[in-house]
Task: structure prediction
Amino acid sequence: MALLFKSDTDRADIWQDAIAKLMPDLEFRIWPEIGEPADIEYALIWNPPKGALSKLANLKVIFSMGAGIDHLASDPDLPADIPVVRMVDEGLTLGMTEFVVMAVLRHHRRIHDYEVQQRQKRWEQIVTPLAPDRKVGILGLGVLGSDAAEKLAYLGFDVSGWSRTQKNLPGIECFSGEEGLRTFLRRTEILVCLLPLTESTKGILKAENLSLLPQGACLINVARGGHMIPEDVLAALDSGQLAAATLDVFPEEPLPESSPFWQHSKVLVIPHCASVTLPTTAAAKVVEGIEAARSGKPLQNVVDFERGY
Ligand code: NDP
Ligand code: OXD
Result:
């Protein structure tokens, strides 16, 4: 029994040690040294080459290294009958909530403006409201969005969220549906995107939707680059419709040198690490999944490809 590990952004040796401590009998094979393909029953994967997984005849479960599975859904040869388990892990959630809270506070206290002022040696105080008078809106109220919403509400922010199915979360104003999206956007001063990338959500950060935000709103995209229409975000920044943006994800990653986002004074560029899957907490989730598969118990967090996430 072997597990295939493939990721260009995660340290294979650290993952190997963490998994070996929990499941010493599991052979750990690191892409591209896959050995005999028939030995591989499990794959722990981030951005595999298209078609790679279809060659593993005895594959039983695909574990996505990330919460998002768009890196797998885009593979036309992804084996249709193999369950894909996405990453749901308290470390990943905590990391995302830390990042979202940091970015919301940065925009709320207009630190983005002080950063510009400092470069111009301008000593000017900006008076900002307190958290209860700041409306934060979160697109996506799943594992990550709901935790961030709850922690922001705890800090006193006036938080709302939008999801596919209607939610009822204490202290959060919840919206769903197309009309719900418009109402949600009209009230949102700091917009956080934490949606999965699907056919229904791609391009949601487009001119039409950005224009519904109050003028001078801020945008935090920590979901996927495909949620944004980059030209529309740039136009909104240039017109002042958006005052600033924190962008962790981009349609093309790494962000090409020619991208106008790099130099834009209103944009903070982060290299897709708002939250990172750490083996310290997440290796146990993979091992739990393998144990469940071995003993015929139901797998948790299996992706519904009909729904797209
Ligand atoms: P979940 O599946 O737990 O939550 C997704 C949320 O989005 C749910 O509330 C869901 O609604 C909502 N949603 C999905 N489709 C629609 C739609 N068409 N309209 C309205 N709402 C919709 O995902 P996670 O919270 O675990 O992760 C969210 C995303 O965050 C990932 O897919 C990934 O892309 C991104 N991510 C980014 C990271 C980074 O470092 N930048 C790190 C980790 C994740 P409902 O509740 O009704 O199902
Ligand atoms: C994820 C990510 O989906 O890291 O977990 O982007």
The longest strand covers residues 40-45. The radius of gyration is 21 Å. The mean pLDDT is 98. Residues 66-68, 92, 96, 140-145, 162-165, 194-198, 200-201, 222-224, 248-249, 272-275, 309 surround NDP (ligand 1) (CB under 6 Å).
